Amino acid sequence: xxxxxxxxxxxxxxxxxxxxxxxxxxxxxxxxxxxxxxxxxxxxxxxxxxxxxxxxxxxxxxxxxxxxxxxxxxxxxxxxxxxxxxxxxxxxxxxxxxxxxxxxxxxxxxxxxxxxxxxxxxxxxxxxxxxxxxxxxxxxxxxxxxxxxxxxxxxxxxxxxxxxxxxxxxxxxxxxxxxxxxxxxxxxxxxxxxxxxxxxxxxxxxxxxxxxxxxxxxxxxxxxxxxxxxxxxxxxxxxxxxxxxxxxxxxxxxxxxxxxxxxxxxxxxxxxxxxxxxxxxxxxxxxxxxxxxxxxxxxxxxxxxxxxxxxxxxxxxxxxxxxxxxxxxxxxxxxxxxxxxxxxxxxxxxxxxxxxxxxxxxxxxxxxxxxxxxxxxxxxxxxxxxxxxxxxxxxxxxxxxxxxxxxxxxxxxxxxxxxxxxxxxxxxxxxx
Length: 432
Fold this sequence. Notes:
The protein has six helices and 24 strands. Residues 1-11 have low confidence and may be disordered. The two termini are 28 Å apart. The protein has helices at residues 42-56, 70-76, 154-174, 199-202, 209-214, 306-309, and strands at residues 16-25, 60-64, 81-82, 96-99, 103-110, 127-136, 139-146, 180-185, 239-244, 249-258, 277-285, 290-291, 295-296, 301-304, 318-325, 329-336, 341-345, 350-355, 362-372, 375-385, 390-394, 400-404, 409-418, 422-431. The strands form five sheets. A six-stranded mixed sheet has the order 3-4-2-1-11-10. The longest helix is centred in the middle third of the chain and has 21 residues, at 154-174.
């Protein structure tokens, strides 16, 4: 995997690569709550789990039930990017991520509904997490970690279906147009007709690599429970992985497996009551669209022009650039040669426009960010065309980045978050 390049180095970014993910419920509840039928000392076991994370160096690891033994896992792991714990049982969610890549926009979300019908799911604030992982320069994948309500009583089923719907709706709102991987403890099986685990396929257009690669694309209709450690990939557990690509980055699953044999105690005993699951992906950037890195902070409402752009046929060209700003950058927009208009942000500031000639392209931009009311926002934008024309709005700060379209490409749209101003912004590129 290539080293991340700077915002202005899009031409040097890798255009393809590989990515693997692991999901593991680490059984981190105190024994008084749940021994998880795992032999041995939980502190020792947790240290061993962390050492295996480091040894196998999975690119992104989502863990669940990471409660009271969290520090021991992190003590022996060496991933450079790791979420901070939210606390032990009854305080934290038990959800954490360890990764070889940085991320932005990390968010923890609590379930709207929980049930104690057959357990104590409401004892701790379970839910899901969201992060936008930067796999390479301009290569982002939205990743979700979740741990749904357990049990099979009517109250459990209702709560779990609500949990899954909550994640699916969040994806529709905050990951529109983006590549996505969801992996965690769903407490669901395809063979339970009451479970709505297919929602990620049916509502979000995702695939399950276990179904795709191990079962030939058809989910099993008869229950086949797994041993632990599992000796076959055919059987089903409640831990799942779902994925989809985007118009910018294609994702293709190349492998899926239970990693159980890699996570054993020296005497051969298990470290968790869950079989850890792994999937490998090939990723490849599109020949039609690319994107820049982001400037600004994770505030406001998510938007993307990619859904509109990806539906167009033929060449795409920017014919007019439009900014508005004063103390900060209030809005940003452009018009395409076919008349399509994109505009994002508020109604304030002084508006400025720049028309582009027939063979002229928007090829470079500068964005400056700063703090306002405790939030990072974009304060300034400057556009430069292939003919050397410029357009600027807002107020420069000391924290500025230059975004150069790759050679032979141009800026044709935006994605990010806005409210009354432009909070977070990245550029969409298309060939000239």
